[in-house]
């Protein structure tokens, strides 16, 4: 897990040149803050990533930039499965991870073929605490939870695990385009939520004056297991160049597990706001937990263990554990109707973003 620090000028020129080629104006975005519905269409600039950024099959990678409020910026990390063996990395119609960005919408980011404009990405919804914000949207197509830096030959398929390179390029663009941002929100959904705490720490490194908040939606069950962390992390190349955070000096590789990322980031960035959102019977987390040998443990117990582990390390973690088997609670407009014990999830998220002492919620 490493951070490439490109000169800001390079990042600016990259975005500016590619935005001009796209034929889209950079001044079309909404200017309203949360509470008023924007009257202009939400516009996006497609940014072609550097050549070393790739999808799992070696195809091109791009990301998206929306210009709203320059003081409030969201780094969005998309989900789309994971792979770590010849069986799980097999491409084709039965693939359990997104292998490329083919078939996406040409003028805006999308989950598959569907526009990504609901839930917390409904940027002109006055109920949305992220309404009006600028967004750098990072698609996902590498099978490595946005953490990989390696090319791995699984025998039947060679996978470009370049998720870390891809997301780092987008993060550097965020810092170059919005150098005066006062608030940075790292929002990850599904696979994107697994790495969200790490990118919260890296965002702080690039924009140290900004208040950083991490919203990690739908990855809370995956264990801090030393064998699993070392084995899968080794396949993806996440240990080759770990962040040079002095607080982590001398830590074993197992300290960089997925729950461990909350701990590492909290130690590195005092005052960062960290939140984890899950459902008790998430069908996708259940499937992947089974694949790594956690079949006999209820998902809510796995999530609870991780929350306890993180909090026992002194991390101020806000967590929401809702009922049901829904995978990702913030991706569609059901978000605005989700409620547990009289607390609406969207209001709870707004409290986290505002730095309030929100209650932990278990439905």
Query: What share of residues is helical?
Result: 25-40%
Poorly predicted parts: 1-39
Number of E-state strands? 15
Q: What is the fold-level CATH name, i.e. the topology?
A: Rossmann fold
Give the end-to-end Cα distance, rounded to a whole number of Å. Answer: 35 Å
- Main sheet attributes: strand count, strand direction, barrel closure: 9 strands, mixed
CATH superfamily, by name, is Alpha/Beta hydrolase fold, catalytic domain
Sum up the overall morphology in one term: globular
Average the pLDDT over all residues and give the rounded result.
Answer: 90
Give the DSSP E fraction (strand runs of 2 or more residues). Answer: 15-25%
Strand order of the largest sheet: 1-2-6-3-9-10-11-12-15
Judged by helices, strands and strand pairing, the structural class is alpha/beta
Q: Order of helices and strands, N to C?
A: HEEEEEEEEHEHHEHHEHHEEEHE
